Amino acid sequence: MSHPAPIIIVGAGHAGGRAALALREQGYAGPLLLIGDEPHLPYERPALSKQLLLGSQPAEACHIGSSQQYRELDIERLSATRVSAIAPASRQITLHDRRTLPYHKLLLATGGRARQATLPGADLAGIQLLRTLDDAAALRPRLQAGQRLLVVGGGFIGLEVAASARQLGCQVTVLEAGDRLAARALPPAISARLLQLHQAHGVEVRLGCSLRGFVGHGSVTAVELADGERLPCDTVVVGIGIQPNTELAAAAGLAVGNGIRVDSRLQSSDAHIYAVGDACEFPAPQDGQPQRLETWRNAELQARHVACNLLGADEPYAALGWFWSDQYDHSLQLVGSLPAAANCVTRQLADSGVLLFCLDAAGRLQGACGWGAGNSVARDIKLAEMLIASGKALDPVALAAPDINLKTLLKGASRD
Length: 416
Hints:
Blueprint: E1 7-10, H1 14-25, E2 32-35, H2 51-54, H3 67-72, E3 76-78, E4 83-87, E5 92-95, E6 100-102, E7 105-108, E8 112-114, E9 127-128, H4 133-139, E10 148-152, H5 156-167, E11 171-175, H6 188-200, E12 204-206, E13 211-217, E14 219-225, E15 230-232, E16 235-238, E17 242-244, H7 247-251, E18 260-261, E19 273-275, E20 280-283, E21 290-291, H8 296-310, E22 322-327, E23 330-336, E24 343-348, E25 354-359, E26 365-373, H9 378-390, E27 392-393, H10 396-400, H11 406-412, E28 414-415
Parallel strand pairs: 1-2, 1-7, 2-3, 7-19, 9-16, 10-11, 10-16, 11-12, 18-20
Antiparallel strand pairs: 4-5, 5-6, 8-17, 13-14, 14-15, 20-21, 22-23, 23-26, 24-25, 25-26, 27-28
Keywords: FAD, Flavoprotein, Oxidoreductase
Domain Reductase C-terminal: 322-410
Pfam families: Pyr_redox_2, Reductase_C
């Protein structure tokens, strides 16, 4: 069914671009407008910290669709355009140039922005963020052999940049405020393996490290630590997380928490407005608790799912969270939830690989994390996802035994 007013998607990143294409794939023939504040086509972000920095992939390979495809599908695009306000009562948006546009339904895929360091000297040249294609293009020339790179933040973005920079011959130091790497997302055993991997590749990692500020005249030349020590550098990459872009939704009176709050159908507190992607806070399928995920899979699957619901399907979003990170010749994969208090079972794999399984009190698998060379844990993580979805009680002894195939557990476990 078509409508005189369009479906408007605000945000032309991964989730927004995929949602626009999915609407056409699912038969929507009405007017469709995709608005983004970047000048680029919609694109995926995983390659920004890896292939684009290493020069093994061009920026165009990240694009979701082509200009010709959007034209052929009659998807109108407004690039380098900012939406300044939403008026839910009249179902209108206002653009930065004060134009107003009506909508039939509105999808907010506003994403997030890289957090800035709020320290003295943070405006010096040579202090880089990595969130966009333009950020990657600006950082790539600075990663030359022999250059001294300081990475502020030991999360996934910082560690992936560190790995890419070492492969390019840079001297790399990672500064992390916490007592282990990627502590918000990973159990200690995997954090320890990450640390060992980076140290083995010549990265200096400083944990429990507080910064006083950045030093330089025009361009950064050093980072000053809280104890007064100065670490000389040529470039600093700040990787301390992202801030979800919720201001537009909040100003419009929509419910906002750690993201734009939606129900299980990805519908906001306004019946005609939906939200997806990095800016969206939605009920976790496993326990209904609010969560916000900054992952490729979440953007991809929520975009496809919300397209169905925008067209009247009214289906709950039930996909489990899944994440991966490639660093050097190793891969990390995580599925489901890894609660801190869970009963954790460890399965040792060949070549120092490991699988961690988190069970609830009834023995049901809630989450799994795998670490290993190459893509060696991918199949086991896929099977773990199926075990989570089955809701079956599992034998911890069998989970820990590397000679027992997880596929066997999927077939033989008994439901609690």
